Amino acid sequence: MDNLKPIPEQVAEKMKRSLRIMEPEPVVGIGLGTDYSLVTRTAVNHAGGLKGIIKENDTVIIKPNLVKPALPNEAVTTDYRVVQEVVNLVKECGAGKIIIAEATPYGNVFESANYNKISGAELFNMEECQAEDCYCLRPDKSLTGHDIMIPKVYMDADVVIGVAKLKTHSEYDAGVTLSIKNSFGVPPTRFYGDTYKEQLHLWGLKEAIVDINKIRKPDFVIIDGIVGGEGDGPLWVRPVQSNIVLAGADPVAVDMVTLDFMGFTIDEVRHVKLAAEEGLGIADLNRIKIVGADLGPLKMKFQRY
Length: 305
Hints:
Layout: H1 9-18, E1 27-32, H2 36-46, E2 59-64, H3 80-92, E3 97-102, H4 109-112, E4 122-125, E5 134-137, E6 148-151, H5 152-156, E7 159-168, E8 176-177, H6 179-182, H7 198-215, E9 220-232, E10 236-248, H8 251-262, H9 270-277, E11 289-291
Parallel strand pairs: 1-11, 2-3, 2-7, 3-4, 7-9
Antiparallel strand pairs: 1-10, 5-6, 7-8, 9-10
Helix pairs in contact: 2-3, 7-9
């Protein structure tokens, strides 16, 4: 899929922005408890909030993890109650349009995850995008060496907020599914084989994940860990009551703090390590400021398949 058309200036600028150096000491906000709205709002506020990111009348994409049809209590998908509070926070910033977008071949995934209960946002399955609805993009210093089909709705939005799920993934694959891996759900499956996007895996999973984030890194990320998932992820996890939401503007930093909470090191999660090496964020826990909780006594040990 060679990109024969010139990239619009605003798209090229967003790609450059993804590769800019992050804050040298990023902040990760923590919210604790079981009240979905309160815990989510607390985490976002502890991370500095969204008002410095979203401007009046902006179009905002919220990208959850909806990997398959699943009920909220299965810990497979981002809980709709967390996403509803993110929508509320975005509206308070004066956004003009809010779109909850995911690329999934399962047509009923929004309904099965109760996303039809969310108010104040449109639901859009990026799987419906045809070639003409996508930009064919390759980041600077691409690791896969391939162009990737990214929906125009995603690239044209003023702000992208990733709302990931805290859960494990096969240790032979991604290791965990957090905010950086969440972007793997952006390219429509139709262009890459079966429901697992086989072609992207063949190019190298960690390299594909990092390339997608290089093309457009979310402006802010949130990880729903109120009920996390462990075991045979990302599809067949066991629910774990972990009572936490993490948030921040640096996805590598947010993932690093989450890994530490889950009982993993960066050497066990290759795509996070690679993302840090490629300049997508800060992985040094000594340089990350955690606001809202002392995670020391709260750390858990998630089990992988």
